[in-house]
Amino acid sequence: EAGVTQFPSHSVIEKGQTVTLRCDPISGHDNLYWYRRVMGKEIKFLLHFVKESKQDESGMPNNRFLAERTGGTYSTLKVQPAELEDSGVYFCASSLQGQYYEQYFGPGTRLTVT
Amino acid sequence: QKEVEQNSGPLSVPEGAIASLNCTYSDRVSQSFFWYRQYSGKSPELIMSIYSNGDKEDGRFTAQLNKASQYVSLLIRDSQPSDSATYLCAVNKYGNKLVFGAGTILRVKS
After folding, report:
1. Handedness of CA A82, A83, A89, A90 (dihedral sign)
2. Which is deepest, A58, A89, B4, B9, by most CB within 10 Å?
3. Which chain A residues have a beta carbon less than 8 Å from that of B36?
4. Reduced to 3 DSSP states, what percent helix, strand and coil does chain A have, rounded to the nearest 5?
5. Distance between CA atoms of A50 and A52, rounded to whole angstroms?
6. Angle at Cα B72 formed by Cα B68 and Cα B76, nearest 5°?
7. Could you tell me which residues are beta bridge partners of residue A85?
8. Confidence class of residue B95 from pLDDT cuts 50, 70 and 90?
9. Which residues partner with A24 through β-bridges?
10. What is the mean pLDDT of residues A95-110?
């Protein structure tokens, strides 16, 4: 069974540009999550999809971040325009529906904004 | 106060010893608890989950949960150099988002 995949693995962009990150969850996982780790900090929750619906987006830092999950399969996270403080590693995770919500993480996308 | 607290380490243990990693959490409504292992530059890898008070064993790993004390621990028996990594404690309150601790660096010396 394939795990969570993310693309690209690394992105370097200039301040003000736009970047789109993609996540493909484990097949059959209705729950999809985005997390972020900035340098020296803990991994922080960004948002949670159940199928195509946003269940919780309380962790999204501001309106420069837009997440979508059309059709309830893969998800994209767009940052527009990017700022220096957006640099970090963006992780995607997925889980089955159920009481205990074991989340499996993808390899992450390292975003560097210069 | 952080929601999930871990000693940053590094925790150094000799090969073959027991490594004991600890985590405390602040919110009593927390329902499920996870330990992830993260090698440098890699993604978090789920190694243990625990939901009820007591111990849960899986191979060389034992997770312990004490909800009254708001305390979770991970024991690694017969530690190997390949266990050297950062161990992340994560807490799930309402069935969706995980709240992570900063992680404990474990170094197993051969």
Report:
1. negative
2. B4
3. 105
4. 5, 50, 45
5. 6
6. 145
7. none
8. low
9. A5
10. 88
Residues 29-88 of B with CB under 8 A from A: 32, 34, 36, 42-46, 49, 51, 88
Say whether A63 sits in a helix, a strand or coil: coil
The pLDDT tens digits of the residues spanning B40-72 come to 999 999 999 999 999 999 999 999 999 999 999
Do the Cβ atoms of A82 and A18 come closer than 8 Å? yes
Reading the block at residue B55, the tokens are 């111990």
- Which of A21, A43, A90 is best to mutate for the B interface (most B CBs within 10 A)? A43
CB contacts of A101 in chain B (<8 Å) are: 32, 92, 95-96
Smallest Cα distance from A21 to chain B, Å: 16
- C-alpha A11/C-alpha B83 separation (Å) is 30
CB proximity B109 to A under 8 Å: no
Contact A105, B44 (CB under 8 A): yes
Peptide bond into A8 cis (omega under 30): yes
By residue count, chain A amounts to 114
Strand partners, B66: B71
Nearest Cα residue in chain B from A55: B96
- Our measurement of the distance from residue B42's CA atom to the centroid of its chain's CA atoms, rounded to an integer in Å, reads 17
Q: Is B3 on the interface with A (CB under 8 A)?
A: no
